[in-house]
Specification:
GO biological process, one term: glycogen catabolic process
Helix content: 10-25%
CATH superfamily of one domain: Immunoglobulins
Distance between the termini: 85 Å
Shape: elongated
InterPro entries: GH, GH13_cat_dom, GlgX_Isoamylase_N_E_set, Glyco_hydro_13_N, Glyco_hydro_b, Glycogen_debranch_GlgX, Ig-like_fold, Ig_E-set
Structural class: alpha/beta
Family: Belongs to the glycosyl hydrolase 13 family.
Largest sheet: 8 strands, parallel, barrel
Keywords: Glycosidase, Hydrolase
CATH class of one domain: Mainly Beta
Protein name: Glycogen operon protein
Length: 716
């Protein structure tokens, strides 16, 4: 049984800051729990022995007290006493050890034992009754908070790279999977923050030419009990538990606070290389799942505040996320915690921005999505957060949750309409080129009407969720059997094409292999020459595959770990992507900060952007309405760009003509004459059929290979 320390009551302490604040004399504990009747701080020795101290002071709904003699690395948790009344949203249960919502570090993991549930759960198969309290002690089976030293970290003059949005190239990566198979990273550092900061890894990122690493979730998370009982894990990490703590499983140095220092060292190393760090954050739900899930923290502290409860049955949860619960960010204290977390990661951990998972759920006031609601308003006025990069995944699974194009000015958005349009074009099923033109030029139909800029559109063809780019051209259907869900999980709307043979076996056919590689080059060319902010999924630049699994969230193995030997197998692809990224970095005409107007830059001159039919004539209304059209020319005029540099000077650049042809047969295209350039040079040809010394002139007819892209640079 736990030992209750009656000899010395905690010193009064203070109600702020929340969490455990270490000092050389004592550690202050503060926990917001408005309806609790008693709060115990539980300290754990290295051997697991527990000592409890009852907090006797309460200010503004915060229980607080100071305990002397504690050291950094001490593990602790809370036990809360109060009503067990699920029908009215109350789920207090002192038998359940609860994680501190403000914990800076977490030690241990969730063990899927029935005692980890606040309610009666007779067996994992039978389910049990979520309204009957379970009084078994959960402490042996749940993770524990850790007291962290507040000593200053040596940032060595670290400064945020502050890459402008128009220059940003995002690179989505998983901390563990990115380095688990890297041959130049020492084995003990693979899969860790230190591994990601290794010089060999940093060199790959910088030589590739990306500017910003977007890390999949690094907040402390746990695997769902049902996954554990199937012998699987939550590999992606979209099951957050502690919003201030870097995930201990990614630390090579320890989990008693060492993970905090290691994370900071990683950020410092990436910043020194000029790379930004953005975190994929999951504030829309927590790892406690629905009414049948484990009790780990928030549910046992203030269940009716932290979660959206079903108004007709408060024993159950409103689920706009597909995970069983929705975090109630509209509640003032919950919103305050989320803001504290965001500011902590910027101020203390030096990250450069956030990508918000299922961001529409955060914008829900009570039930409806409200872009003028509290979460959006607080972000808008916050002097710290409004200065960092903010990316929304602009949807959730609830009614009215699809909000692409609707987020406020400071926000950028994952543009799934870009993804779908580009995939459909290159598989020859786009139904014309009308939508393609919008996506190539920054999606003004989505973002221009409310004064936003082209970089509001985060352009992507692939992401962690779905096929890799190589699988996109190798599989017609998902192959998720390893997930243990009979291939029912994952999207069926992949808009993929296997080019005649299902799976990687098709690469043994030289014709199929060449066409697949060409299509990858087409995707990369389209992505990196489109106006907006491109996002590359880690490994796509070297032909990464998940063997057709489009939902590998539960696989922590070679399916999801990046195979670095692909650099030797597909060196041409890697160099092709590097070349495209270098071209993008050097030419502002392909990364405009303002939307095109389709009008001449000067009287009688060339338009800032022009669209051409294969005949060499500008696209007419009938051309745009032609659903059979598969070829489009885009001219980008560099003579004068509709924005100026930091000193107010005009920006000029080269002009380019890009042809995109998705048809199965060759296409004849004529280079426009008249006011348009008289001569061009070939910059790239994804079919590699036009020689580099070719300088075609206005009026020249060129043959585009089937399913190919051609980029020309104007010479006059």
């Amino acid at each position: 049984m736990p030992r209750v320390n009656d000899a010395t009551l905690p010193w009064p302490g203070h109600w702020t800051p929340l969490g455990a604040t270490y000092g050389p004399e004592s550690t202050n504990f503060a926990l917001w729990a408005p309806n609790a009747e008693r709060v115990d701080v539980c300290l754990f020795d290295d051997d697991g022995a527990e000592t409890q101290h009852t907090l006797i002071n309460k200010t503004f709904d915060v229980w607080h007290g100071r305990l002397p003699g504690l050291r950094p690395g001490t593990r602790y948790g809370f036990r809360l006493h109060g009503p067990w009344d699920p029908a009215n949203g109350q789920r207090f249960n002192p038998a359940k050890l609860l994680l501190d919502p403000y914990a800076r570090a977490v030690d241990g993991d969730l063990v899927a034992h029935p005692a980890a549930f606040g309610h009666l759960r007779a067996s994992m198969d039978a389910g049990g009754d979520h309204t009957v309290r379970d009084d078994r002690d959960s402490a042996p089976y749940v993770p524990k908070s850790v007291i962290v030293d507040n000593a200053p970290f040596d940032w060595r003059g670290d400064a945020a790279p502050r890459v402008p949005w128009a220059r940003t190239v995002l690179y989505e990566a998983h901390v563990r999977g990115f380095t688990m198979r890297h041959p130049d990273v020492p084995e003990q550092l693979r899969g860790t923050y230190a591994g990601l900061a290794h010089p060999a890894v940093v060199e790959h990122l910088t030589s590739l030419g990306v500017t910003t690493v977007e890390l999949m979730p690094v907040h402390q998370y746990v695997s769902e009990p049902d996954l554990q009982h199937r012998g699987l894990v939550n590999y992606w990490g979209y099951n957050s538990l502690a919003f201030f703590a870097p995930h201990g499983g990614y630390s090579s140095s320890g989990t008693r606070g060492e993970q905090v220092t290691e994370f900071k060292s990683m950020v410092r190393a990436l910043h020194e290389a000029g790379l930004e760090v953005i975190l994929d954050v999951v504030y829309n739900h927590t790892a406690e799942q629905g009414d049948g899930g484990p009790t780990l923290s928030y549910r046992g502290i203030a269940n009716d505040a932290y979660y959206h409860l079903d108004p007709d049955d408060p024993a159950r949860y409103s689920d706009y996320t597909g995970t069983g619960n929705t975090f109630h960010v509209a509640h003032p204290s919950v919103l305050g915690m989320v803001m504290d977390s965001l500011r902590y990661w910027v101020g203390e951990m030096h990250v450069d921005g956030f990508r918000f998972d299922l961001a529409s759920a955060l914008a829900r006031s009570m039930h409806d999505v409200d872009m003028l609601g509290s979460f959006m308003t607080v972000i808008q006025q916050d002097p710290v957060l409004r200065e960092v990069k903010l990316i929304a995944e602009p949807w959730d699974v609830g009614p009215g949750g699809y909000q692409v194009g609707e987020f406020p000015h400071l926000w950028t958005e994952w543009n799934d309409r870009y993804r779908n349009t580009v995939r459909d074009h290159w598989r020859g099923q786009a139904g014309g080129v009308h939508d393609l033109a919008y996506r190539l030029s920054g999606s003004s139909d989505l973002y221009a009407d409310d004064g936003r800029r082209p970089y509001a559109s985060i352009n992507f063809v692939t992401a962690h969720d779905g096929f890799t780019m190589r699988d996109l051209v190798s599989y017609d259907a998902k192959h998720n059997e390893a997930n243990g869900e009979d291939n029912h999980d994952g999207s069926d709307d992949n808009r993929s094409w296997n080019h005649g043979v299902e799976g990687l076996a098709g690469d043994d056919d030289p014709g199929v292999f060449e066409l697949r590689q060409r299509q990858i080059r087409n995707f990369m060319t389209t992505l990196l020459l489109s106006t907006g902010v491109p996002m590359i999924t880690a490994g796509d630049e070297m032909g990464r595959t998940q063997h057709g699994n489009n939902n590998a969230y539960c696989l922590d193995d070679e399916t999801t770990w990046l195979d670095w030997s692909l650099r030797e197998r597909f060196p041409q692809l890697l160099e092709f992507v590097r070349g495209l990224l270098q071209l993008r970095a050097e030419h502002p005409v392909v990364r405009q900060r303002r939307f095109f107007e389709g009008e001449p830059l000067v009287d009688g001159g060339r338009k800032d952007i022009a669209w051409f039919a294969p005949s060499g004539a500008e696209m007419a209304d009938d051309d745009w309405r032609d659903a059979s059209r598969q070829t489009l020319g885009m001219f980008l005029n560099g003579d004068g760009i509709r924005s100026r540099d930091a000193w107010g000077r005009p920006i000029t650049d080269d002009s380019f003509l890009l042809w995109l042809h998705s048809g199965a047969e060759p296409a004849q295209v004529t280079l426009p004459a008249g006011v348009w350039p008289g001569r061009y040079e070939v910059v790239l040809d994804t079919a590699d059929e036009l020689g580099g010394n070719v300088e075609p002139g206005a009026g020249t007819t060129l043959t585009l290979a089937p399913r190919s892209s051609l980029l020309l640079r104007a010479l006059d």
